[in-house]
């Protein structure tokens, strides 16, 4: 489990592609790899991945072809958001995040407001019903609060987020522009509510 509070950013130095998976080597000297062990989980742009090798400044993860087909931002040369998994007793500064990406969204607006930034993202139809005003959502691993939601005739939904200067400075949110794709994870509570409601409907 994670919180969506980014600890550091890293650079994907290398991507070794095989028929089975892709091994990423991520340079992350500011993550604090001294207390990361082989087998630990790290959220990379919101995707929970297992550490399979490490050095003092880098760690390696294997990414399945299935995961690559359902996510974005895991290519060689890209900067990524990083968060180590929670330990019992850690502060929960954001919201409970599983690291299981639910879908890919499209940035429609990234506007500099002077004291903050307005980020607008289009969520695909299958995720639209899970996005709620004042609810939580994870964008490229970053825990954020939805300020506004607009439904489109297509079934998709566009939601608006305010980005404070600290978040803009310490995460890859600062690199987003109109047309960029982002990993989205819906709030765990929304997932369980939807499941319970669908069970109630089928029992009627």
What secondary-structure arrangement, pairings included, does this model have?
Layout: E1 8-17, E2 21-27, E3 41-44, E4 47-54, E5 58-64, H1 65-70, E6 79-84, E7 103-112, E8 117-123, H2 125-128, E9 136-139, E10 142-145, E11 148-151, E12 157-163, H3 165-170, E13 181-186, H4 188-203
Antiparallel strand pairs: 1-2, 1-6, 2-5, 3-4, 3-6, 4-5, 7-8, 7-13, 8-12, 9-10, 9-13, 11-12
The assigned structural class equals alpha+beta
The name of the CATH topology of the largest domain is: Elongation Factor Tu (Ef-tu), domain 3
Largest sheet: 7 strands, antiparallel
Cα gyration radius (Å): 17 Å
Class of the largest domain in CATH? Mainly Beta
Work out the helicity level.
10-25%
Q: What is the helix/strand order? A: EEEEEHEEEHEEEEHEH
Oligomer: single chain
The total count of helices amounts to: 4
- The end-to-end distance, rounded to whole angstroms, is 35 Å
If strands are numbered along the chain, what order do they take across the biggest sheet? 10-9-13-7-8-12-11
Tell me the fraction of residues in β-strands, as a range. 35-45%
Our count of domains comes out at 2
Overall average residue pLDDT: 92
Shape: globular
* CATH-scheme architecture of the largest domain: Beta Barrel
Q: Which segments are poorly predicted (pLDDT under 50) over 5 or more consecutive residues?
A: none
């Amino acid at each position: 489990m994670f919180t969506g509070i980014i600890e550091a950013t890293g650079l994907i130095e290398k991507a070794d592609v095989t028929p089975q998976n892709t091994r990423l080597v991520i340079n992350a000297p500011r993550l604090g790899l001294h207390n990361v062990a082989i087998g630990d989980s790290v959220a990379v742009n919101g995707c929970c991945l297992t550490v399979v090798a490490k050095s003092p400044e880098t760690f390696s993860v294997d990414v399945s072809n299935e995961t690559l087909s359902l996510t974005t931002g895991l290519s060689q040369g890209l900067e990524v958001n990083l968060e180590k998994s929670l330990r019992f007793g850690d502060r929960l500064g954001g919201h409970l995040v599983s690291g299981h990406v639910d879908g890919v969204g499209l940035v429609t607006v990234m506007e500099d407001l002077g004291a903050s930034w307005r980020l607008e993202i289009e969520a695909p139809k299958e995720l639209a019903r899970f996005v709620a005003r004042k609810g939580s959502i994870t964008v490229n691993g970053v825990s954020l609060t939805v300020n506004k939601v607009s439904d489109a005739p297509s079934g998709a939904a566009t939601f608006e987020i305010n980005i404070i200067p600290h978040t803009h400075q310490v995460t890859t949110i600062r690199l987003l522009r109109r047309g960029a794709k982002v990993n989205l994870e819906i709030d765990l509570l929304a997932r369980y509510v939807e499941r319970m409601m669908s069970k109630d409907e089928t029992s009627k």
